[in-house]
Amino acid sequence: MRGRVFLKDFIAGLLENRRVVITAAITAGTLLILITVYFLWPEASDDRPPELMIEGIQDNFRYNESASISYYATDKETSLLHAQIAVDGEIVHQTEIMCKGYYGGTNIDCLKLAEGPHRISVRVIDRSFRNNAKEIEVLFFVDRTPPVISTALSRVSVLQGDTAALYLRSSEPLAQVSATLLQRKFYGDVVDAGENIYRCLIPVSIFAPQAKAVILVNAFDQAGNPAEVSTSINVSRQDFIKELIEVPKSKEGLFVDNQALVREADFITKTMQTHTPDQLWSGAFQKPTEGSISSPYGSQRVYTTGLVASCHRGMDIANSAGTTVRAANHGTVIVAAFFILYGNMVMIDHGQGLITMYCHMEALVVKKGDYVLKGETIGFMGDTGLATGPHLHWELRVSMCDANPADLLSSNFENPWKGRN
User: Fold this and answer.
1) What is the DSSP string of 138-151?
2) Is pLDDT above 80 for 156?
3) How far is CA 62 from the centre of its chain?
4) Is residue 279, in this structure, part of any structural domain at all?
């Protein structure tokens, strides 16, 4: 009897231990499977959202008839599943992706939207178990109302060769401003972003008719809405002298290599296209060196070599060799090199289309890229290049057009609305 009980208990114990072993084996196997799935199956382990970049529509920008938005999404862990674009919560574009990288986008018909603020969002989802998502939202404005603009001139009368400043105040930020005088268009720059004030510097040609000339002002806001106004300026005659320039025998060889002269002229023209939107100068310009005016701007010149120049593009200031030459105002040196006709020359960008040139110097003490202050030494007077004696040829370009540099000595182009409401 006892033997039977012992055998029964022994068999029951084996069965119980077997269940424990089986349970333990099942548990261990399940854990192993879960760990394997987690580490080897990206969809299970991926907890990072996709990467998303958008372009086109800009935050807080204004649009008129239409706007475009594009996006580029990537998911390196798994792959992308879905993308959608919504305007004010309403889906306007959606697509199934099924790849690791995708570029998409759509156009927004702003004519169907009311004027005012709107929100556009781009959302992408990956294929992970968590459906990780990335979303970018941008605030934009629909604007179909033209800007309201008013203008003011720095002076209402100028001489041929002078530079006028036209100021424009707008009811909203502008994307482009231009002023056209005698079929020449000059673009403007911001002078006070907070007050939406812009300035166009207008060089008046020495060949401009002596009359009241119309200045046509065009402006476009960020949405492309146009506005147009006009004003007028009185152009008066300026007498320009005639000169016969006797070229020394030692300088006649400068005209031999015509191809080199053309290359230099092309380089200077290209460099003159430099336009820095920020104003670097401050206040009125100063005379760059001491000496007498040996040849004024605009003089009609004929060289004894037979070369005829329609006019003198700068002002010549004569003094002894070695006289200090200084920057007429703050700016960045964009050229400091030797040229066949200009000799040792420095070109300074003062910003917003104003560039001055300092030529025929004996030596230079600045290099390209230097930022110079008003009155800072940039070189010393000489007679290098096409010069009949020691002097400084000082030249001014306004939006690539030559203008009288002497006019800068009394003009600072100050904002007429500065300090006013």
Assistant:
1) EEEEE--SPPPEEE
2) yes
3) 19
4) yes
